[in-house]
Design a protein that fits this description.
heterodimer; A: 112 residues; mainly beta; seven-stranded mixed beta sheet; four-stranded antiparallel beta sheet; 50% strand; globular; B: 112 residues; six-stranded mixed beta sheet; five-stranded antiparallel beta sheet; 59% strand
Amino acid sequence: DGGITQSPKYLFRKEGQNVTLSCEQNLNHDAMYWYRQDPGQGLRLIYYSQIVNDFQKGDIAEGYSVSREKKESFPLTVTSAQKNPTAFYLCASSTMMNTEAFFGQGTRLTVV
Amino acid sequence: EDKVVQSPLSLVVHEGDTVTLNCSYEVTNFRSLLWYKQEKKAPTFLFMLTSSGIEKKSGRLSSILDKKELFSILNITATQTGDSAVYLCAVKGNTGFQKLVFGTGTRLLVSP
C-alpha cells in the first residue's frame, strides 16, 4: 500500500537533547513537508523540499533542521535550540502539480 | 502574508442536524482551497476547490468556493457521531511553491 510512514508515534526527550523524527513515503512524490500542530492551532510549516538535496525554511524553522538525501525520505531533527518543542509533528507529501497533500500519522513529541 | 480564518472555532450539534463550516482566506495568486478532516492524527483529504460556484459533493458532505468574496463553506447534512472531528481549511497560492497555509480548524462534536 502506498502512503507516508512516520516514526515513532510517541517520543519523549529530555531538555537539551536533539531528536530526529522519521518520515518515509512510497508515493513517488517530489515534494515533502513538515508541519507542527499545537493545541487549538492550525498546522504551521517548518520545512519543505521540492527535490532531493534541496529544502527551504517554512514559517517556523528556527530550532529545526532537515535533510533530503533520498526522494522517499525527509527526516526532521528537533534541536536543543527549539525553545518549545512539545507538539504534534506531521509530515506530508504531494506531487508538484496542483493536487492535495497526503499526511502521515504524526509523531507526538514531549519534552520532559 | 497568506491567511486563512475558519469559523466557528468549535460547535456542538445533535445527530441528524445540518452544519455549515466557514473558511475565509487571503492568498497571493490563489490556486486552490482544500478541506481536510482530522480525527485523531493524520488529516484526511475531503475536497479541493479551484473554481467558483462549482459544488463538490461526497455523500453527505459538500463544499463550494466563492473566489470573488474569498471564502468557502463545508456543509454536512444528517450529521452522525462519526463526523466528530476537526475540519481544516487550507489554501494554496502560486508563489513558486505549493505551500499549503492552514486555518486553525473547526472542532465539530456530534452528540447522539
